[in-house]
Design brief:
9 helices, 2 domains, seven-stranded mixed β-sheet, six-stranded mixed β-sheet, Phosphoribosyl-aminoimidazole Synthetase, Chain A, domain 2, homodimer, alpha+beta, 60s Ribosomal Protein L30, Chain: A
Chain lengths: ~350, ~350
């Protein structure tokens, strides 16, 4: 059997099965945004890794090395945030083809450093190896829970509200703009920035964990519907998504109008958004002005509710409920569609 | 400037400079076998990462996926051991070409699991991505110091004895045997095993740290002379290596005799040995039977002494002292020779 037949998630399940054995230090292993490890009396560490591969996650033609360095760390910080944890430090592996210049490599490290400084997650080690083909960057981040338990994917209950930070769709627009030669770059600059240098919701994730009302959380790396399916599967629930409430970025709305695409469709399927998708106990007030819940710079939108498992995954659009079509990015399949 | 002009160690220095900033949690950053991070009142964690790249570290034609899974974790455990630390858990990134079969991938994970079980270092997370060319595996291991401080590269003093665990040369012999079609595989099975599935000195590293007499330590991944130079540079010292005392494996001696090569030369330059090279205060007795120093299954050989910096790096061979020629593996240069 080829890997493309099994698919990325099938492969992750096999890895999970193969490596299921743990020790008494491991509180949570494979299957969430990060692993959770016991440390000392009551300390909890998180550990996560994520890679970027040339030709899969980026093309050298349109990805400035400086932004690449930023993003490779940022996507890991997003995973740490999705647990409600704070970063401590990171290590990086850079497998670089000989054709890379020293200047490009230094720009890569400068972008990595910029992100490390911004999020206080110093690079404490790394491995630099030659690659015989494209470049591969892999970052692992160590983080810690500070005063709260981790927020897992599995903690949602039927009736919980489904919420998302920020506005969606920009990463898909940015990718389209760059892949079509970049001529509309200036008009869609925020979308391009979002794709090239995402801002992980680091502080927001910690605040959400401390709020006490968040029951499950995940970051949007593969697309909202795909991540929502992870929350439903891990929590053993169904859901109802309110399509009309999904927050769409202004540039996404413009680009969709010009391209004849559905703005909500883009927002639902756009990967690499690095917003947080989470569920909240309905007795907790979701209010950006709410004391200590989330900061004033964050926006949170209620976009649905968790339902009993027998309801399945549904979407309400223009008052009509139908089955939610889940689409996300699968690295071994050019497009993955499962309902 | 091309990366091949700068070389691997030049690149690591640039990364080190670029990422020098740390925070109060980082006790030791880039530049040793692993980083050391403060955790809680008096806890110390270590974090390290190491990658294996197809076409650079291995060829698919002669590397069974099961052994590859083992080795990718083992080389990281060797780094943890070289700090005197114990592993807690690891995360893995596997960038696999679509041409890999599911069976090969499962064998890879099975080998990883076998090593994880043997050394009690469970796989707690990972990222599986498509690679557009060769396979790249990157593992990051989290470990901890248990009751001792970490052993750094920089702690040696003039007069300290230079010691090495085990016997050397096997990895070079194994590589030669496999690269020449493997027809002598059975006769050099221990060397091939050593190359394909190295046994990191996990318990030995911890025992050495607890002995109280070890002043500096590093693992042999790039070759003994290259690692010795790291100890000399980090400690600001010179050294005198006793060539005649360097422990050579029996198979290395046989292979060298048949091939007209110098057995000691092979032992000095063979990379991927994953033995520990360390320095010991001369007042501490180096004795395999010494209580608590190292275990009965370990052999330790004194192969030289640290000297004042003005002596430089020297080698004594047949009673004659000369400048030690340092050779090691540089991934961006097919052969690297510096004196």
């Amino acid at each position: 059997m080829r890997l493309s037949e099994l698919g990325e998630f099938g492969l992750i399940r096999r890895l999970q099965e193969a490596c299921a054995a743990a020790n008494d230090r491991v509180i949570l292993g494979i299957g969430d945004d990060a692993a959770v490890i016991r440390c000392g009396e009551d300390g909890r560490l998180v550990l996560t890794t994520d890679a970027m591969v040339e030709g899969v996650h980026f093309e050298r033609a349109w990805y400035p090395p400086d932004s690449l360095g930023w993003k490779c760390l940022a996507v890991n910080l997003s995973d740490v945030a999705a647990m409600g944890a704070s970063p401590i430090c990171c290590v990086v592996t850079a497998a670089l083809p000989e054709s890379w210049s020293v200047e490009e490599t230094e720009a890569l490290y400068a972008g990595l450093k910029r992100c490390a400084d911004r999020y206080r997650c110093p690079v404490v080690g790394g491995d630099t190896v030659r690659s015989t083909a494209g470049a591969v960057f892999s970052v692992a981040v160590l983080g810690e829970m500070t005063g709260t338990s981790e927020i897992r994917r599995s903690g949602a209950a039927a009736g919980d509200r489904i919420c998302v930070t920020g506005v969606l769709g920009g990463a898909a627009v940015g990718l389209n703009v760059l892949c079509s030669g970049g001529k509309d770059r200036d008009r869609f600059s925020e979308s391009v920035r979002r794709l090239l240098e995402p801002l992980p919701r680091a502080e927001t994730g910690v605040r959400l964990a401390r709020s006490g009302g968040v029951t499950s959380m995940i970051d949007i790396s593969d697309g909202l519907t795909s991540e929502l399916r992870h929350l439903c599967e891990a929590s053993g629930l169904g859901c109802l998504l309110y399509a009309d409430r999904v927050p769409v970025s202004a540039e996404t709305a413009s680009w969709a109008a010009e391209s004849g695409k559905s703005p909500v469709g883009l927002a639902l399927e756009s990967g690499e958004e690095y917003e947080l998708l989470f569920t909240v106990n309905p007795s907790v007030r979701i209010d950006t002005a709410g004391p200590g819940f989330i900061g004033p710079e964050d926006t949170v939108t209620v976009i649905g509710e968790m339902r009993p498992p027998e309801d399945g995954m549904r979407i309400r659009e223009g008052g009509v409920d139908s089955t939610l079509r889940v689409r996300g990015w699968d690295h071994y399949r050019s497009a993955s569609g499962n309902s």
